[in-house]
Design goal:
Porin; twelve-stranded antiparallel sheet; 12 strands
Length: about 300
């Protein structure tokens, strides 16, 4: 297992400080705000701790209210709204300095048989032979100004805990308008077996929730020929949702298929689907992000 994946798992193992109250931390970073996927996944972990193992999270709906300060711990307070016969509902509020920075609701279900169908997996090359996005990103940074390098550090956290390989990589320095669709292979950057987490479905879900915030908002910028490097761009996640449909392993390759049906009023809507190598659709996600362009 890579050191980066160990660090991610440590981040997702929250400290319980009181009944239904948990404390999360952010790793040492030069970023000026907490990565949204981290808060999203940590809130899931807090809720999971209050639900029996027989019930798995099947959906999470969240709003990002304020930027998180990476120098401070984050408190997560879980409200046990309902425990039904088949479904369980939890609400989680994350706060810093006494103010809410994030709130979310999650639903858990006892697995049961039922009707089943899915869209087919897109036809594309596998991850073998594709360049790792983090390697390509470091190559691009060599051609950026120091100002742009600083902006990318703030807007894009390190990719090391999650390995990503884009099927048709975006040129972030010289982006050109292209259809709002991209395919990225992703997986945790190591094996979960080493820490005895191979069968920990809750942790696999949290890792995928963390990873689901990568690349998604950028999909809505593709038709406009802009990227996170653009100094006029003010990006931020506004809300984020995920649904889990079937079992999977976060440390095995998953195809993240993303599209963006609409952008307007400085907001971009993006959707994503996660497929296993054998073509099973195991999770779906949707996000609206702020893509505000300043004149100067």
């Amino acid at each position: 297992m890579s050191d980066a994946l160990k660090e991610l798992i440590n981040l997702l193992n929250l400290e319980k400080i009181d009944a239904n109250i948990y404390r999360g931390r952010t790793p040492e970073t030069t970023n000026v705000r907490v990565f949204g996927g981290q808060v999203f996944a940590q809130a899931m972990r807090a809720a999971q701790d209050t639900v029996s193992d027989e019930r798995s999270v099947h959906s999470q709906h969240a709003y990002f209210l304020r930027p998180g300060d990476p120098s401070l711990p984050i408190l997560y307070e879980v409200d046990a709204i309902r425990d039904g016969n088949s479904f369980t509902t939890r609400r989680v509020v994350a706060s810093q300095r006494g103010k809410a920075i994030f709130n979310t609701e999650l639903s858990f279900q006892i697995m049961e048989p039922g009707l089943s169908h899915q869209f087919d997996m897109p036809d594309c090359p596998g991850p073998e032979g594709l360049e790792d996005d983090s390697v390509r990103w470091e190559k691009l940074r060599e051609f950026m100004s120091k100002k742009s390098q600083g902006k990318t550090s703030r807007e894009r956290p390190a990719l090391r805990p999650i390995e990503m390989r884009s099927v048709e990589p975006i040129d972030f320095i010289n982006p050109v308008p292209r259809p709002a669709h991209q395919l990225v292979w992703i997986k945790a950057s190591g094996s979960m077996d080493a820490l005895g987490l191979a069968d920990d479905a809750a942790m696999h879900s949290a890792i995928l929730a963390y990873a689901s915030d990568f690349n998604l908002m950028g999909t809505s910028m593709m038709p406009h020929g802009i990227s996170f490097v653009d100094p006029k761009l003010q990006p931020a996640s506004l809300d984020h949702c995920i649904w889990f449909h079937d079992s999977f392993r976060a440390d095995e390759w998953l195809l993240y298929s993303m599209d963006s049906p609409r952008s307007s009023h400085s907001r971009g809507l993006s959707r994503g689907s996660f497929y296993t190598r054998d073509g099973r659709l195991v999770a779906s996600t949707i996000q609206e992000g702020l893509i505000r362009m300043h004149k100067d």
